[in-house]
Amino acid sequence: MNGTNVSNTILDRLAGELSELTPEARKAATYVLENPRDVGVSTVREIAQAANVKPNTVVRMARQVGFEGYEDFREPFRDAIRNGAADFPDRARWLQDISKSGDLGGLYADMVRDVMTNIEETFAGISTEDMKVAAEAIWDARRVFTLGVGVNNSVARNFTYLASTGMTEFHAIPRPGSTPVDDLAWADGNDMLIAVTCKPYRSEVVEAVEIAQEQGMTIVALSDSPASPIIRMADHGFVVSVETPQFFPSSVSIIALLETLLSFVIAVASDEIPERVETFHKRRHQLGLYHQEDT
Hints:
Layout: H1 8-17, H2 23-34, H3 36-39, H4 44-51, H5 55-64, H6 70-83, H7 89-99, H8 105-124, H9 128-140, E1 144-148, H10 151-163, E2 170-173, H11 180-183, E3 192-196, H12 203-214, E4 218-223, H13 229-233, E5 236-239, H14 252-268, H15 272-286
Parallel strand pairs: 1-2, 1-3, 3-4, 4-5
Helix pairs in contact: 2-4, 2-5, 4-5, 7-8, 8-14, 9-14, 10-14
């Protein structure tokens, strides 16, 4: 979905039908969801080969979501390429110059390029209304639990820390000595879970989202594919781009999205939030938590 101007309706429809497809058609659909830019420039055989399925499987997938065939399905993706955003020649030249600047220049250029691309692709697939609706749900929740494990643990905890400067019922899980499922044991339909995981998906996060769904919690999910199990279970799903030339996934777009989501929560919240934040920081100053230069 990210990186194209294709109407999200088409890809959302495909993601919504995912569980109804045959295993082979699901493989084709998952490839399209994760590589939408390939569709506009690839034949049915090329897509089938990339998805490791037969061409007629790709055709059946297209028909499943309301198109007459693959060419009909591909046309909106071709339109997106023709009508898409302009390239950035100045930035391209800058990156090329960096790549020639020494042994590590190429790595530096690749990292910079991926950071900027990840941000652009993530936010290209998310509308202001998507953010507003999720933010309103967060503000209306009795308690908000944020879940990330591994590299995403610190991301989830940072979001919780920032939110806690103005709101009191934000809880990062798993708590020390606990498990995500234990931490959600008494949560119900009045509560919300914000969960983050990217491929390979962490089983404890998927399990916690399943439990949250069973308990009627509202779910906000951040993951790297529309086919992600937590996106498919979420009430509010956000696909993030995490590409990097390194062995680890990039966290930049996840952090940026969570910071933006928090800003939306504050924007839709009651007028008391700015006062709470001001009181919070005033107390920290009074307690001497901030360094002050001698005058």
